[in-house]
Amino acid sequence: MDKIALITGASRGIGAATALLAARQGWAVAVNYQGNQAAADAVVQQIRAAGGTALAVQADVADEAQVLAMFATIDAQLGRITALVNNAGVVDTTQRVDEMSVARLRRMFDINVIGSFICAREAVRRMSAKHGGAGGSIVNVSSAAARLGAAHQYVDYAAAKGAIDTFTVGLAREVAAEGIRVNAVRPGLIETDIHASGGLPDRVRDLAHQVPMLRGGTAEEVAEAIVWLMSDASPYTTMSLLEVSGGR
Ligand code: NAD
């Protein structure tokens, strides 16, 4: 099977680490970004400099028209994808539930849930044996918060990731016989810019003592799990929710 992957939100953090590792393992990688083209181009350049194949592709994953245009570009320039990593996500820790606006709730679910759903739909249309595809692997980036609940001013984020877990299990069942595996990775406390963007820049330092391994994880450590699930090294693994959280 060709190794062609789309990784959403891949201009930084876990997505960028996944793009770099996947490219080192022979994947041609479409590096999705929403707004920061320079950062996505830097990831692409790093991959190309090491002899790999990569392409920066813009789309807000919550915008169906932009996602369709992105897939058309990938089809034309790399071919049909055989792996999708639904990694794009946002967190916001600035409001308790009694302060939370419906606009914020909708955006949280639009990006974390609807965006993953739209990308997965387009992936199934390309991977499924029913559509003439060669099969493939979909990896959804959930969160340990889906299980822990996240009662720290981001209950909406935890609920969205809970939806991702249930979506993973249902989709895995639906397409298993068509050659598509679907799994989720649940990162714990990982050192990326998402915490500063979400309003708590010191979150990893403040909470590391709660992790049995007594430290936050790195984006590269999460990427190892994601790339394993993308690859032929996990041929009989589907419908799993893999915790990468230092035991948290
Ligand atoms: P990050 O903020 O560095 O990366 C998220 C990426 O998603 C960014 O590049 C951002 O631009 C992109 N993005 C956001 N909205 C988008 C949209 N509408 N369309 C396209 N791209 C969009 O954070 P990260 O920690 O690397 O997060 C990656 C994933 O891991 C997210 O789904 C996040 O919820 C999940 N996660 C992170 C942690 C952690 O502690 N860092 C823990 C659990 C789960």
Q: What do these coordinates show?
A:
The mean pLDDT is 96. Helix 1 packs parallel to helix 2 (37-49), helix 3 packs parallel to helix 4 (102-127) and helix 4 packs parallel to helix 6 (155-175). The chain starts with a strand and ends with a strand. It is built from 9 helices and 7 strands; from the N terminus they run E-H-E-H-E-H-E-H-E-H-H-E-H-H-H-E. Helix content is 45%, strand content 15%. The protein has a 7-stranded parallel sheet with strand order 3-2-1-4-5-6-7, sandwiched between helices. With 248 residues, the chain is of the alpha/beta class. It has one domain: NAD(P)-binding Rossmann-like Domain (Rossmann fold), CATH 3.40.50. The radius of gyration is 17 Å and the shape is globular. Strand 2 (28-33), helix 2 (37-49) and strand 3 (54-58) form a beta-alpha-beta unit. The structure holds nicotinamide-adenine-dinucleotide (NAD). Nicotinamide-adenine-dinucleotide (NAD) is lined by residues 8-9, 11-15, 32, 34, 60-62, 87-91, 111, 115, 141, 143, 187, 189-190, 192-194, 197, 219. Keywords: Oxidoreductase. GO terms for molecular function: glucose 1-dehydrogenase [NAD(P)+] activity. This is NAD(P)-dependent oxidoreductase. Its EC number is 1.1.1.47.
